[in-house]
Amino acid sequence: MKKFNRILLFTGVSIMILGISSFSSQKKTKLYFELGFTINPSAGSSVVNFMILGLDSTNHNIVSKKPITEAQFVMYGKGVLKNEANPNRLDFFKEARVDCGLILDDPKSLGGVLIVDTLWEEMKPICLPVWDIWKLRYSIHPKYGKGASAVPAEDIGWSANRWRPSPKQTEYLAKNYGINHIADFFHGPSMYELFYDMQNPDWIRMYKEIN
What we know:
Helices cover 36% and strands 18% of the residues.
């Protein structure tokens, strides 16, 4: 009986130690945040979905996702508004040499001086690489049906296939911009490198010719 009690006691202590160890490891997990996007539309979502991503500082895995709008994505990236992914309000687009600005829908005047209102409801991004994100995955904007014939030039994408890039295009994106599949999240410095490259007509031509 005493032996049985010792076994139970030992088992209980072991479980307690494991529990404390597990709790400690969770407690030590620190997150850092980055802006990101995915070209992975689902029911009720946009073609491109923008997020503030929380990543595990140990293994860099994505552990949290906070949806934001396209306008927020641009303004957070430019440092117009403070956020978890840009607490120092740096202009990540400018640092990456990406031409990305803002347009005021309704600029306010105070004593004849225009005041920039940082509320995104009153601002729109003018950021061509961000507008063109969908073109990486589609040859024609997905708003068009299968039988679409006359499609304007601005709705023609860069993908080798109608609904997704070719395997070689995907391989190229994976090698250079930190994804494994086209539905993965682009984020961090490699995302801004992609935006920089997307400004270059020669890069666009090269990407379209990969098949």
